[in-house]
Amino acid sequence: MIPQDTFFILAPVAENRAEDLLSLLNDMTKAPGYADPDNRLVPFGRFGQLHVARFFLVRAQTWRDIAAYGQDPQPYPLQLAFLGDVDGDRQAFLRELVTRCADGLSEIFSHCAGFDRGTDLLRWMEDHNVKEAANYVNTRGRTVRQVHEEAALAAALRRELTAVAERGEATDPFALHDHLVDHVRRQTANGTLHLTRPPRTSLRQRIPNWLDLISVPAILLLLSPLLLITLPFFLLWLRRLERTDPEILPRPDNAHLADLGRYEDHDVTNPFSAFGDVKPGPLRRLITTTALYLLNYSARHIYGRGYLTRVQTIHFARWVFVDDKRRVMFCSNYDGAVESYMDDFVNKVAWGLNLVFSNGIGYPSTRFLIKDGAEQEDKFKRFLRNRQLPTQVWYKAYPGLTARDLVRNSEIRHGLENRPDGAKALHNWLAKI
Question: Alpha-carbon distance 314 to 308, whole Å?
Fold first, then answer.
């Protein structure tokens, strides 16, 4: 299996360079925010291991909210974020990126503080790479190459089934399956179709994964006596904070919503970028750190096969601490419109939203960390939209395909290579085509 890796380059924008940078980023798109895969600066489409990528300006919208806690608001510097998800190793991808796009990347990063002519581009990017606190991949090990090959396979099978129906040939499911297998065999033999066998996971890769899998349960078991003793004190401290934490939920500004809307719905998938402050105090920092650690663990070992809890529309997502864990950035790639995206979470996993996001300043009030909060739908949506940022450049390697499409295409391939058992199962497989 080829694992996925991430990169997240974050750097402050130089003074008085923001407008020029925005203009440059706009030149990389063919619709607002929607990247031209062959743009002159970073032609994303030429990198066969790149799933998704984005450039956007991190402009804190709600930094003044911390005044509600009696602290002096500190403006967050305007920053440029460049992030993506790739097959294989991050360092290997960045080396290839620099080799092929050095001039374009230098032109972009020349608008950042500390980047000068002659700067070692690769080292600068590595120095500004921020490690994620939690990362979610819809299906671990599914490569860009696999996505394209399985989409081509499904399309070829669909065309052949249509041709069979038009010729009025037999519709016996067993005969149809044999016919489609022969058709694909001929297509692969002449090079029309390609079905690369995914590499098997080696024992060397499995052992660290197994050790990581048992580490959290082992630690929790070891600490369980201490956790039971401290639990009542933790809950009392938490409830005292929850009763006094202010809700800061103004209606999103119409101009802000209009600006966000310009960058949405150019494909069946959308990017989402949000940025906010963590509530002050050691308990909130501890809860946020622990929640994201457990989320990252769950994403690696539980939710890496097509769903995040009950939500199946997310391709990739990550949570990143910045500013010494005083702030958190959240970035995702999801299918559908933003309203349906938020509804999906509110209706299916509000408790999970509360566990992570309720530690953000201004969040709707919660009870014992997991109750209320996002269940107050209107308040939650205000909170999220106020912290959402426009994504100026966003790229996806397989436009027009949803996460469900990718799953279905893999199921079609599996059914072709491993004939379903029985007529009913074959009919169900044919219906997917």
Answer: 8
